[in-house]
Design brief:
Elements (H helix, E strand, L loop, with lengths): L1 E4 L2 E4 L10 H5 L2 E9 L2 E2 L2 H14 L8 H15 L7 E9 L17 E8 L14 E7 L14 H12 L4 E5 L5 E4 L3 E6 L2 E4 L10 H12 L4 E3 L4 H5 L3 E6 L3 E8 L2 E2 L7 H13 L4
Helix pairs in contact: 5-7
The structure holds pyridoxal-5'-phosphate.
Pyridoxal-5'-phosphate binds next to α5 and β13.
Length: 287
């Protein structure tokens, strides 16, 4: 496949970054993953706004304006289409603080950010029928990451370790709760529950990433007259929910049928999921 590195498009196998890059040494950078289907991106405006605010939060100058980012994305999709014939293409963008001559924690003066992008195949758009969708099983554990989870940092060791807990339990993801027993998000997704036909998702704060899929879903549900509330809920609320869903750019809205070995609802994908995914598909390219 074809990658983007510091202004050039080149084969991914030829893209090289110095080991002195602060992205490598410190995880000092910000990233984004943008889903595209048949060359149409989903949530580009939201992804660009989150990238901009993440870079600003860690004092890295945004190397490109939105038009330039859009052009890079379009070129990556076009150049990679022959390698990914399904047309379900995720674009990864990564901006690190750059390469320094020494390893010293303080921000160096006058280094240029390293900008990297590559393309990879994502799952096809979710089906509309609940009998055709892959149902997820998840683990549950206390969030042991840092206190700035709203920043889409490339330092993902905390997320990796939480995700691995799920893998070791033979499930697909790990839902996280804080020390007060409130659900926040999952290791690589946001979380929704449904109770009595009302959809709930935790409000945005420093404990979770402001997922673009989450925000498109909230808007889509409102447009489709699905009742939705941003409010905190507990582990008990999660386990006693009628339905549980995960959201992320690569999964869209994914139904969860088992948490920590316990069935959710009747253990099958629910009817509200079907309504939700229809509402999401109707709105996702407009968002
Ligand atoms: N939460 C975490 C920790 C994530 O890593 C991600 C994305 O990968 C999400 C939530 C979902 O965000 P988005 O919908 O923007 O992909």
């Amino acid at each position: 496949t074809i990658a983007f590195l510091n202004g050039d498009f080149l084969p991914l196998s030829e893209a090289k970054i110095s080991p002195m890059d602060r992205g490598f040494l410190f995880g000092d950078g910000i990233y984004e993953v943008i889903p595209t289907y048949q060359a149409k991106p989903v949530g580009m405006k939201g992804h660009m706004a989150r990238l901009k605010s993440g870079l600003s939060a860690i004092s890295i100058t945004n190397p490109y304006d939105e038009t330039q980012w859009r052009d890079i994305l379009a070129t990556l999709v076009e150049k990679n289409s022959p390698y990914i014939p399904s047309g379900n293409i995720g674009i990864y963008f990564h901006v690190s603080r750059g390469t320094d001559s020494k390893r010293f924690h303080a921000f160096p003066d006058n280094i240029a950010p390293t900008v990297f992008g590559f393309a990879f195949e994502i799952a096809p758009a979710q089906p509309l029928n609940k009998h055709d969708v892959k149902a997820f099983k998840v683990a549950l554990e206390e969030d042991k990451r840092w206190q700035r989870c709203h920043i889409k940092s490339t330092s993902l060791l905390g997320n990796v370790l939480h995700f691995q807990t799920g893998v070791e339990q033979g499930v697909n993801e790990t839902i996280l709760h804080n020390s007060a027993g409130e659900i926040t998000e999952a290791s690589s997704c946001n979380v929704f529950i449904v109770k009595n036909n009302v959809v709930y998702t935790p409000p945005l704060d420093n404990q979770l990433l402001p997922g673009i899929t989450r925000s498109i879903a909230l808007e889509a549900f409102t447009r489709a007259s699905i009742e939705v509330e941003e409010s905190r809920f507990s582990i008990d609320d999660l386990l006693n929910a009628d339905e549980v869903w995960l959201s992320s750019s690569s999964k869209e809205i994914a139904p969860v049928v088992e948490v920590n070995g316990m069935a959710i609802g009747d253990g099958n994908v629910g009817d509200m999921w079907q309504k939700a995914i229809k509402a999401y598909h109707d709105y996702k390219f407009i968002a």
